[in-house]
Structure of Peptidase M16:
Amino acid sequence: MSTIEHGFELLADNPLPELGCNLKSYRHLRTGARLVSAVADDPNKVFGVSFRTPVGDSSGIAHILEHSVLCGSEQYPVKKPFLEMLRNSMHTFLNAFTALDRTMYPVASLNLRSFRNLVSVYLDAVFHPLLTESAFEQEGWHLDLEEVDGRLQYKGVVYNEMKGAQANPHSVLMRASTSSLFDNHPYAHDSGGVAHEIRELTYSRLKEFHARHYHPSNAWLFFYGDDDPRWRLETLDTFFEEFTFRADDTRVPLYPLVATQQTVELPFSPIESGQEIEKGFITANWLLSEIDDPLERFLVGITSSCLLGSQSAPLYKALIDSGLGESVVAGGFSFDLRQPMFTVGLEGVELDRFDRVTDLIEETLSNLADTGFDDDLIEAVINSKDFAHREFGNSSFPKGLAIMAGMLSGQMHGGKRQSATLGFQDTLKQARARIEADPGVLTRPLRIHLLDNPHRSTVRLVPDSGAQDAQRRTERERLDELEACLDASEREDIRDRSLWLRQFQAEPDSPEALASLPVLSLSDIDKETREYPCEEIPLDGVRYLSHDIATNGIVYVSLLFDLHHLPAELLDHVELFADALRQTGAGALDHVAFSRRISGTTGGIGAATDLHSKERGEEAAAHLVVGGKCLGHQMEDMVDLLEQMLQSARLDNRDRVRQLVTQARSHAESSLLPSGHSFVGCRLAANNSEADWFDEVTGGIAALQSMRTQADNFIADWDRMASALEEIRTRLFTTDNLLVSVTAPSNDQSRLRELLRPILERLPDTSGDCQPWQRTQFPEEEGLVVPAPVQFVGRAYDLRQAGYEYHGSMAAAARLINTSWLWANVREQGGAYGCSAGYDRHTGQFSCVSYRDPNIAETLGAYDAIPNFLEAAELSNQDLTQLIVGTFGSLDRDLQPRAQGQTALARFLTGSTPDMRQQRRMEILETRPEHVRALAGFLQEAGATTNTVVMGSAEALDQAETSGAVRFRARTVL
């Protein structure tokens, strides 16, 4: 007999002690809505509502709808409830996502009142949106005409977002790799949208799509956390009172496998890397039959990791060792869609070598199908998966959201997968038994799903330096054709509509509409700063920091070496040194054997730079961190491997180092367009402080230029490079330069200290004095030239020079600027996908950077008008309260054990004391309107001497200079 609770039928009750929760699955009797309710002793509560939204074209209809429903609803008739919640709630997560076949709306909060408010706003947004035509035009696309005698433009947030995405060759490659396997099917299209098809989408179609897909009968809901599970059921049952069941099958249809070997060739605009030989991208792709059995999917996932899960995996290694390309792209078998796919390829491939890449992939797969995988590789993969599951949720991502994401694909695609739980250990135990009984279970998929599968495709991206210009010309020609057909009255109508939309965007919501939103009070804010354990313990003359925190049996170790022991001329080799420590082998072990031992006996070991600005003084806290993580019984193995990295990493392995140099350059160039705002922000700050300068040298444009030099001159410079790497090791790895930081329970730490003592005894005592860094100056007022149809626009203001002294109210003021002025002027009216402002209290720099922005002059004008906005800001007591609440919502995060230890370490390194942190917290709580308005004068004065950095096309930079908006003193072609 079934159990009925508040209109929901209980379908399954699954305790999951390994994830610390109990999952109950329900079906709403009246509407058919599906619900998973997870009860957990976790204050970071999560809610999500998702819909199946397969599309029939690339107009971006699902993506634009995702944006538009968050622009006002029946119960909350403000223009931007999403922004109001972003501004005024204590959320730990607040966003929405569009995938190829689904749209998701997740939220999370530590505060119960805030959580319930967010649930209410999101439910009303998706099921009862106002869905106005102005929202469609703002978020999707519209024709814009500023003056009657001006030129038509296309504007829209999603429109510009996707123009930026289509300029990124990796995005184009991955999308084409999927679509090439389908024809006349939802997966053949781009759910995010393609610019020229977005322009064909109509408002009426958007409303029809919502009416069909955003209904409880097509909804999957999820709750997680320590809130009342009865409230969840009662809330949903009440909300669904007006709905009834609707039979409308939105499930993605299965696609039949056929004998097809399609080759797709597309152009991309290459980054100007200085290489004379043209190079492109290539992927080989297969579509599989549906795999419904959870155990079989798990086993195929192990096969995928054995092939490509690390740089020592055989298919990955074969591709890199071949020298046919610079970096592996794609990652093997994927199960996110209804039918699995397999994709693998290379970037940086000379065009006449494309066929050799696909031949090599087939040859390697065939050899592995015949010979099988090494036992130590299989064990390493299984150990890595086991460890990753034990660490599940131990990140900045809310744990409940990770559980929701892991379940959603199986739920929506149905079959046996919908009844499968996340009971990992049982599945792992079954997988081990299958592998032991039948070793071929991991290699048969290579023949069944790949070698003997005729449903495949090849995607090639070939460089075309004129591709972006051609797209711009096509867009301009289309607009000119439209203009030619307009009479004076029609032009006036478009201009009037453009002006009306701007006025509508600029008008504040009415007090009545704002009053509909649920709010919090200052009493909901924790007045005390959260502190995390950090005790300094002497260990044979070495500084040792203990973070005594429960970690679910995991031990986290960091060995920090102060980089000030290096001269400045070695710093551009530090990132390569960090890669080489882990990726070149150690002692008698080559890099394959060393990597497999790490994966087989620990949760991972690596090296990376770590950078912080200190609270006092000019010097940065800059370290190389050699770290690892393991279970308690693995500590001896981990310590031994750490010592091998320190003492005997094979830094003279020329061939392997050359691969690492090539890959580093390729990855840096590939990140330019997706992360243009980060590069601009880094360059803006580069001359401010030692920390900012170091950040630019090791991770900014300067680092990219160094990587190119290292790659282009590798053979001639190898002896010098090898010497530099060895000198870094000699100078860094000494006990007087070492700080140990460990996050684990005290009993594990006691044993770990005993294991560390022999390592410390074998390290040299001293490496000499710290080296003063003579910092080079980087260009200011700089244009960074890239082949992109949108820009990244940054401007910095020196408030310290203007006389400003830091006060915690700056955090609230910056939030007001971000969520009011910049959101309205740069995002909504300007059409940029994003824009943010922030203040660095260590240097006094206030900076603004936009993301995928169609404008330059208009955006810089919006930045310079911030003082006027602040002077005119009228903040009521309620406005101020909500601003403060939202500020703490962005500051107070639920940190998992590892992050708690990292936060405690960062506070130690920077000299941040509890009193400092508490003072800043109280200053935010005590923010007053006069604090906000006073900032206007400092920004106004600082506006006389700004620094501007813009990344965009040469044409866009020329237009900005012609308009007088900026005068670039330097141009750097990237």
